Automatic annotation (TrEMBL):
This is Small ribosomal subunit biogenesis GTPase RsgA. Residues 80-241 form the CP-type G domain. InterPro entries: G_CP_dom, NA-bd_OB-fold, P-loop_NTPase, Ribosome_biogen_GTPase_RsgA, RsgA_GTPase_dom, RsgA_N. The lineage of its organism: Bacteria, Pseudomonadati, Bacteroidota, Flavobacteriia, Flavobacteriales. It comes from the Bacteria. Its EC number is 3.6.1.-. One of several proteins that assist in the late maturation steps of the functional core of the 30S ribosomal subunit. Helps release RbfA from mature subunits. May play a role in the assembly of ribosomal proteins into the subunit. Circularly permuted GTPase that catalyzes slow GTP hydrolysis, GTPase activity is stimulated by the 30S ribosomal subunit. The gene is rsgA. It holds the Pfam family RsgA_N. It is an enzyme of class 3 (hydrolase).
Length: 327
């Protein structure tokens, strides 16, 4: 029998059969997909073959095969840095939820996410959530961020999940598709799913007042069928986004605005650092490429792991407050 994985909690997988029943399944022995070393062999979104096992009090299943994935989105596992974690597979669209302050989302985080999505060929839409909370400076920051990404071809939406702004437009984009919500903890992924489908009652939690971080309320990725012919995968908040190993020459190919220009660089193996006659550096000097994007590129190139800090801006502010108090 064939089914679709809706939830994975480590040892058990919830699989929806072709008839529409949900069956709790385990994996038969240990098998791995060819080519990827991941901490989770089966992910939400996988199409699997399974056999039923009936005991006196329950019907469970055993998964013995995974169908080839159309695509998947991975990140480096937090603890085992050489292992990957497959967040979800067979996705049509990813919606990356972004908040400006509570919690802060950095350019660097967004760029790392986008590079991975580009590498795995998954369309990403940026969703700026919590627009109802913006004061004037926050609004300016948000609009600038949106400008940077719209300029290079990413679709952006402005949403308030609590005041239902932009929610219908988002629903429209999800019809007939499998979508995934991603972003830091506390950006409002589960709240947004509830806004679209109030009957789901997904658990949500206010962000910590002190740290301005979310509290990791959602702990497992899970797919839901929505009443307007759409499927959504709600995922746990991610901290830093570890990029899966890539060849250095490959990275700029996943920055669409670099990709367009790189044939104009003098050297065809140009890494856009110190090389002469580099089209990307020239565009940067003309302000046609955003510095934030170039900085993210350099960090990825140098293999820096992302350190997700609360906000360096807040840190700076704290220091200046302290010095002020000392006076
Ligand atoms: N004012 C306002 N608050 C929001 C909005 N969206 C979400 N929130 C609040 O943000 C907090 C976090 O929301 P969640 O939906 O739990 O966030 P999440 O992204 O699912 O977090 P994790 O499950 O931890 O990854 C909750 O208190 C929500 O009520 C919004 O558009 N406006
Ligand atoms: Mg959640
Ligand atoms: Zn170059």
């Amino acid at each position: 029998m064939t089914g679709l994985v809706y939830k994975s909690t480590g040892s058990w997988y919830t699989v929806k059969s072709e008839k529409g029943d949900f069956i709790e399944c385990r994996m038969k022995g240990k098998f791995r997909m060819k080519g990827i070393k991941s901490t989770n062999p089966i992910a939400v979104g996988d199409i699997v073959d399974y056999e039923l096992e009936e005991t006196s009090d329950a019907v469970t299943g055993t998964i013995f095969n995974i169908h080839e994935r159309k695509n998947y989105i991975v990140r480096k596992s937090v603890n085992l840095s050489h292992q990957m974690h497959i967040i979800a597979s067979n996705i049509d669209r990813v919606f990356l939820l972004i908040t400006i302050n509570n919690p802060p989302t950095t350019f660097n985080f967004i760029d790392r996410f986008l590079v991975t999505a580009e590498a795995y060929n998954i369309e990403t839409i940026l969703v700026f959530n919590k627009i109802d909370t913006f004061d004037e400076p926050t609004l300016e920051d948000q609009l600038y961020m949106q400008y940077v990404y719209q300029q290079i071809g990413y679709k952006c939406l402005r949403v308030s999940s609590t005041e239902m702004k932009g929610v219908d437009e988002l629903k429209e984009m999800m019809i007939g598709k499998v979508s995934m919500f991603s972003g830091h903890s506390g950006v409002g992924k589960s709240t947004l799913v509830n806004a679209m489908e109030p009957s789901l009652h997904l658990k949500t939690k206010t962000i910590s007042e002190a740290s301005k971080q979310g509290q990791h309320t959602t702990t497992f990725a899970e797919m839901y069928d929505l009443s307007f012919n759409a499927k959504i995968i709600d995922t746990p908040g991610i901290k830093g986004f570890g990029i899966v190993d890539m060849e250095k020459e490959e990275i700029s190919g996943y920055f669409p605005e670099f990709f367009k220009l790189k044939d104009q660089c003098k050297f065809n193996n140009c890494l856009h650092k110190e090389e002469p006659h580099c089209a990307i550096k020239a565009a940067l000097e003309r302000d046609e490429i955003a510095w934030s994007r170039y900085n993210s590129y350099l960090k990825i190139l140098e293999g820096d792991e992302e350190n997700y800090r609360t906000d360096s801006y807040d840190e700076d502010r704290k220091i200046s407050d302290e010095t002020r108090n000392q006076k």
